Amino acid sequence: MGVYLSTPKTEKFSEDGENIKVRYGLSSMQGWRATMEDAHAAFPDLDGSTSFFGVYDGHGGKVVAKFCAKFLHQQVLKSEAYSAGDLSTALQKSFFRMDEMMRGQRGWRELAILGDKINKFTGMIEGLIWSPRSGYGNGHEDDWAFEEGPHSDFSGPTSGCTACVAVIKGNQLLVANAGDSRCVISRKGQAYNLSRDHKPELDAEKERIIRAGGFIHAGRVNGSLNLARAIGDMEFKQNKFLPAEKQIVTANPDINTVELCDDDDFLVLACDGIWDCMSSQQLVDFIHEQLSRETKLSAVCERVMDRCLAPSTAGGEGCDNMTMILVQFKKPMQPNVRASTDVEPSPSEANDSKPEPEPEQTESS
């Protein structure tokens, strides 16, 4: 449920940018929540040929979402698989890498910094007078060498976050998702879901949870977490006899690959604070309506949030943090045949808030 404020914080952080292939706008708003736990990343020029966009919805704290926003795209870019042109493997490894990097002394220190536990006057981590052996801020953060210190046995954060990212390279679009943030593309005005909401009651998720020694109670993993996949949440990843992808909760992302074409209008990445209030098709329709009279994409995102914000906390929906990235494709694009993949995007029905990324439609839940 979370703790709510007496009045919502409606101030928004917004941003716009573009390159020769895309325009983007984004916005985030704390809303009724007592704290802001969302984070995002937008790099239209991750390198000379690649754009990267991601939303990270934190739970139990903000630090894991902020950690992913700072480091996940860096790990994609430096991956050997990325250099070899295997974007799917680069994305999967980068999701798992977040969990690895948050362990140990270096992970603890980075999370402490992102959690604002660094004394701004002394530069030291609050509650601990300690100087790392490997110099901090030496320009080699991605080397991530093992670091000795009083938290060398740190097993990682108990908080976590969802991660939904979109990578555009040429006319290829890859979407990687773990959790219930969602990516949707508008193709000739039709909403197509490019990600799956990883809820514990899904058969594949339930099977993995139980096999790993967990259980589901009241729709929550071990009666606690209402997600089946997430980065962080290390208390659910303690089975030493199982690989990372088979833990009770896993960071293993679903990855969907499509070829972009001239029929594609825009792409939306948003946390569940948006999807709790609007279905995929409803949001696509609303955006098309707004684009007929508004050219600034961040302003469109802001209007979505104003529409979703609840008048009170009585109902629950519309009370969450909200983050949304809108990416508009510049026309014309070279026509392409859709890439052959095992998973293809699916049109979402107007009232389906938890659609699956197969051609067949799932029942609303």
From TrEMBL:
EC number, UniProt record: 3.1.3.16
Cofactor(s) the protein requires to work: Mn(2+); Mg(2+)
A GO MF term: protein serine/threonine phosphatase activity
Protein name: protein-serine/threonine phosphatase
Pfam family, one: PP2C
Superkingdom of origin organism: Eukaryota
Limits of the PPM-type phosphatase domain: 23-329
Biological processes annotated in GO: signal transduction
Alphabetically ordered keywords of this record: Hydrolase, Magnesium, Manganese, Metal-binding, Protein phosphatase
Keyword Hydrolase included in the entry's annotation: yes
Family named by the database record: Belongs to the PP2C family.
InterPro entries: PP2C (IPR015655), PP2C_BS (IPR000222), PPM-type-like_dom_sf (IPR036457), PPM-type_phosphatase-like_dom (IPR001932)
Disordered as annotated region, ranges: 334-365
GTP-binding is among the record's keywords: no
